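Still learning folds. Look over my entry:

…
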Amino acid sequence: MLYKDFLATMTACPFCEGQPRVLDENELAHTTYALAPYHKYHLLVIPKRHVVGILDVTPEERAAIDALVVRAVQTLDTLKQDHISVLVRDGRADGFSKSVDHLHYHVVPKIRLGDVDHLGNDREVISGEEEVALMGELETLF
């Protein structure tokens, strides 16, 4: 079944209502495997409480999630997997970059992210002028 067809059958949050398939857990989060993986060993770390965004988690939940992400990376290392990417899906599902309205962390070995942008176009290095403008815009926010 294609992932988009699976998503069309969902009537509730799969992380809250679905089969948890727990590989590892602590009081506030758990680790599972992806049903539509980017790689055979694609793992997910999910807070147990239904939260949509990273700004919604408590400091205790963040520590619990971080601990499980580290253990997931250690597990992948044991499996001789390398080049691990940790991706966070934050915010509401938009059908473009996120498909489930529940914060989750992807821990994926050997995923290719380097040479295309979010639209699938070849990435370009920003110009010096663009860099100055971007720095000016962002530095006041940090």
The longest strand covers residues 84-89. Helices lie at 3-9, 59-78, 128-139. The chain has one domain: 3-114.
